[in-house]
Amino acid sequence: AENLPGVVEELISSSPLIEITLILFETQAGNIAGQLFTTANFDAEELARPFNAMGSKTQVDFALVTNNLIEAEQLVVNKLRQRIETR
Description:
By secondary structure, the chain is α+β, with helices and mostly antiparallel strands. The protein has helices spanning 4-14, 44-47, 69-85, and strands at 20-26, 32-38, 54-55, 59-63. The chain contains three helices and four strands. It is globular. The chain has a four-stranded antiparallel beta sheet, with helices on both faces.
């Protein structure tokens, strides 16, 4: 998890049109956690509020109750889409 910001910076620098980056991963305890990165056009804290995310306007971390990565992806992506559409 501590290396993800560097990976995202690489992605963004090679694809400047990216405005929102979501990374979901399994923790050592077997749960699913996520990191959401945004450009100045979006507020990561606001977008990830339903997941009790902690962080800043451009990067937040959150943990999910599920240990199923597919379920976590569907849940988070659908919720983010809803929040982006209604902003």
